[in-house]
Design a protein that fits this description.
Layout: H1 2-8, H2 22-26, H3 33-60, H4 62-65, H5 75-78, H6 83-104, H7 106-124, H8 132-149, H9 160-182, H10 200-224, H11 238-253, H12 261-267, H13 269-287
Helix pairs in contact: 3-6, 3-7, 6-7, 7-8, 8-9, 9-10, 9-11, 10-11, 11-13
């Protein structure tokens, strides 16, 4: 039962909550132990909160999932986890998360509540509305960044990072929709009706727009943010962002993957190397070079 519950909690999705560390890292406070501890605690709480959302989603979609070739193997549709147990776990997680989140920061708890409400609204009807569905998913990443900022005393966190996060999340969301539509078979849209509102040409145009804006907004951040080195060394990280954008597009359009971005991140070695080099560059520029 515990293994089935853990599978329903989707631990592979937890890296998305790493966006809570954006405020800590890009404000130069990674070496601030109290701030790091608070952000780590917030990350764990958001992992529980996002897992609660997945449990609620599986409970709401159990009948549709039983008709899906892959989702029918999930613990709740397959019968390995009873709805009563899943519902009890979701309630307990909510009871646990919000008091602890309030102790960390009332504003952080408010962001958590916004995250939960948006997810519930998305799971209800909004996920069936084309364009709006990916906009809502993108907003959840921005909520994560905002929640992380509220956990620490931010000195000079650039608003450009909120804009960059928005376009990056849109890029991943639209790429996911394109991969799903590309793999569409007869009757598959019954499990995801929103795909009926998309076409491959439309999604390709949207990808062109958001990928361009992702690169542009990050580039603007690298030379306009107040807390960066005066020699504009941060601009050296732009090639990593460009390659990451292009690599994911290659995986979506050539390799026909991308319907699960988290699986791409965990399996594609070039993308992993790019993210690692990007992370090292960020650490060197923020914590080793003089400001």
């Amino acid at each position: 039962m515990f293994r089935a519950l853990l599978q329903t909690m989707r631990p592979k999705q937890w890296p998305k909550n790493g966006f809570l560390f954006a405020g800590l890292i890009f404000d130069g406070q990674l070496n601030n132990l109290p701030a790091l501890s608070r952000t780590a605690a917030g990350f764990l709480l958001f992992c529980l909160l996002s897992s609660t959302v997945y449990i609620i989603n599986d409970l709401a979609d159990v009948e549709a999932d039983r008709k899906h070739p892959k989702k029918r193997l999930r613990p709740i549709p397959s019968g390995r986890l009873s709805p009563v147990t899943a519902r009890t776990a979701a309630i307990l997680f909510i009871i646990l998360v919000f008091p602890l989140a309030f102790l960390l920061s009332p504003k952080f708890a408010a962001f958590g509540l916004v995250y939960l409400v948006i997810n519930l609204a998305y799971s209800g009807k909004l996920k069936h509305i084309p364009i709006l569905d990916v906009l809502i998913l993108a907003s959840l990443y921005v909520v994560r960044v905002g929640a992380g900022v509220e956990l620490i005393e931010v000195a000079r966190f650039s608003p450009w990072l909120y804009v960059f996060t928005t376009f990056l999340a849109l890029y991943l969301g639209i790429g996911k929709r394109r991969a799903e539509l590309n793999l569409l078979t007869d009757g598959s849209s019954e499990q995801r009706p929103v795909l009926d509102g998309y076409t491959l040409p439309l999604l390709d145009q949207l990808i062109t727009v958001v990928s361009s804006m992702t690169i542009i907004t990050y580039s603007l951040y690298t030379f306009s943010a107040e807390n960066l080195p005066a020699n504009h060394a941060m601009m050296l990280t732009i090639p990593f962002v460009i390659y990451g954008i292009f690599r994911y597009l290659y995986l979506v359009q050539v390799e026909h993957s991308g319907d699960a971005p988290e699986d791409v991140l965990l399996s594609d070695r070039p993308l992993q190397i790019t993210l690692a080099l990007f992370g090292v560059a960020i650490l060197v520029i923020f914590y080793a070079l003089p400001r």
